């Protein structure tokens, strides 16, 4: 018989405290739906009354399988719970659960609130009792509990016992400043259980200021706590909260937790975890963290040559869980660290099957090494890697040649005396038939356009008229552009990596290198079109 | 009497296993100097012989206070340590310390190596004995030790005892796949000590696949290990290694570690930690992780209203350590006090003395916030910051105006049929006298020039003829150029940061932002000339 462990998500409340994060109501609805689909037990939506977005979200009354929770604070001194208008706004959201934060650290009661310890304890007790009387599931967020316990254990325990005795379903021990290390969290959680609050009424809420938010949560669970709070992608105040994107698969897949606990999340649901994480990044317009545990693009990337060759024999040699279980995938990047087994693996991912011992493998590795020394990088630019390999394997088709391009960027005053920035480009290609085609593009209304730069102008001109290939490249879109100055031999050169996508939902990346940033970009643009034509089965149009 | 705890850095070896990371030799030299300045005990430089860059770095023989270590693997079966050419390449690097990785998990010995358990133990024993006989400090990286111990504790212990008995100064327990949770790492480390390898000969090497690399390291130290391995900014294979940027301040500042241990790093050195972390990101052209513990831009950002008001009363209310101790700073969005004193300090560094309470301080902060929201960054671009402040203080001189620029980049075939890439630029400026001057620059022999790009052409044209100011700008040289795609509001924009120097040995940096990379660069070039004219006392030439 497994014990029940509850997952409490606070992405929409503490996650919104992340610097630079401000969710709109539709975004909150979207995130809540993702969390609910995953199966978390509680979704905390925000603080009704604290700001217009939070109020609007509660007014929208999202329909959830999870228990919906509103956040607020314990009533203020000198008034009853019934008469506290801040608390009233929280109650009016009408959620099944209400979580109130209160002080447990004597220093904060005296410094931040400026009231007596007794008055604070009474505020907690009365507020929680009021929630219970109103028929709500009552939670108490014990702010600064660990620091408070270290400073004055008797008082800290008095506050949480007051909440529990008043009927709180959960007392949540918060490491608000994020400075408590896991061993200490474990010991103090055990002490609270020893003082009479059962573990199945205790929650843990940690922050990542020492990179131990996940470990601190596990330490509290080891000690007996049965609710864990966190956020998707570890959003949250300062360094963030405990990262549920990491905690959830750890609790579901790894021992001793997998055998011991049951949560509201079915193991099969984990296959949607990577997508959920990326969706949140999309909403926030953030570049996903490549090295994120479980869900990062690099989480199952095996770069060391020794690792890659063993992975080919048995993936468990260098993977603690299987990537597909969390909806992620394995990557064997190409680099000068890697040997032939990496290379064969990567070629087969590109649909190119090459026998072990084929001399082309050595040639491809040599070309890659030489080009990496020139400043190229093929870890992410898989499409450029594939074209390079096709070249050495005699499998590269030449669809068209670029005769010439010319790009102009200009800043000037227009007829009305306004400063304008414009770019224009002309590209001439020669088709296999010998026919030449010239295309022109200009940003006519530069100041209103989001991309008035030379690379965009070149791209628009290049893909405007490729004759017989046109229908195959019409749906190619440029989605990301990365530039860095690097060393090519002894000279500084510009490396450009560009991501593309098409209507079939494919994404591919190419790389270009040159001392000239425009020329480096052009190389990457050209490779992208060649890759697309290769994959869509274009036949060389003679 | 404090116990000695050793910090072993592997940024240049395991850190280089990060997907997308490829250090050049000058970059390795620069990172090694930063690590050495910080005071880590060991710097592992790479694997001599495994790839050209690593070999070149060891050939350069960096001068370090730290113990310099080369990485390699134990000798292969069927040959002596003396006759193994892979091991010979490692020895030939001539480092004081050598760290050899070897198998400890029976499954890997049989699956990946395909040799008997006895042969593997002998490889370990002979290899380590060989290092010792050659007078090197010998380290054994016990690969997959925790997984190996769980599968076959007797064999795993046999391998590490073989290394220890052969004279290894350190046996490093590696959680290679990153799947072992902290509690288990602690228990198994204690078991190894119980089996006869003293803690002051044990190291710990963890990976972040469950976000527990820091916690696992602490658990091993708690159990008795006295060497900890990691990387700056947590670089490393897959999800990265234990993050030394987090571990170092935790070990030096927080209990029980601060009172118990002494490391090679003085507490005062921590004030350089944030800068060291950012420097590594600069080298990698990565956007620094805002939520990184201790060193992230958000690590001491207090967004919640309740937090911010308490922070103003006493910063310890919501901070586990003081930001200045790690070279970071506090951010209170929408606030002022801390902001203004920071600002006054930075202005005085630029030679601008502004009284406390001057309303210009608030205006400058507002402009900086607005421009940062547009994508600007003033962390390194001190010259652009100074010009912005001078503008608000009414101390900015207008030396000349740019009427127009136009830049062309072209790829074409020349008369002899060779492909050439060329750029040309024309710039028109108006002097205060009303006189207009137009300058032109073209790369005539593009293929032989190191910089045939549009930004260089613009720079050459711009500084060719500035009339009365010409003698003051003749010695300005462009020394570094960084490009990053970032967010300006909701649009992706290009941010360019350029470093300059002059014959007086001054160096300064400016920033430009635009959707157009050429225009962003031009803005930074222009600011650089303005800064130089301001500082060389140019008088507006009417």
Automatic annotation (TrEMBL), chains A, B:
InterPro entries, per the entry: 2-isopropylmalate_synth_dimer, AIPM/Hcit_synth_CS, Aldolase_TIM, Citramal_synthase, LeuA/HCS_post-cat, LeuA_allosteric_dom_sf, PYR_CT
Residue span(s) of domain Pyruvate carboxyltransferase: 5-271
Annotated pathway: Amino-acid biosynthesis; L-isoleucine biosynthesis; 2-oxobutanoate from pyruvate: step 1/3
The enzyme's E.C. designation: 2.3.3.21
A single GO BP: isoleucine biosynthetic process
SMART domains registered for this protein in UniProt: LeuA_dimer (SM00917)
GO function term, MF aspect, one: (R)-citramalate synthase activity
Reactions catalysed, as given in the entry: pyruvate + acetyl-CoA + H2O = (3R)-citramalate + CoA + H(+)
Xref: CDD domains: DRE_TIM_LeuA3
Keywords assigned: Amino-acid biosynthesis, Branched-chain amino acid biosynthesis, Isoleucine biosynthesis, Transferase
Xref: PROSITE patterns: AIPM_HOMOCIT_SYNTH_1, PYR_CT
Family, similarity comment: Belongs to the alpha-IPM synthase/homocitrate synthase family.
Name assigned to this protein: Citramalate synthase
Record organism: Shimia aestuarii
High-level lineage: Bacteria, Pseudomonadati, Pseudomonadota, Alphaproteobacteria, Rhodobacterales
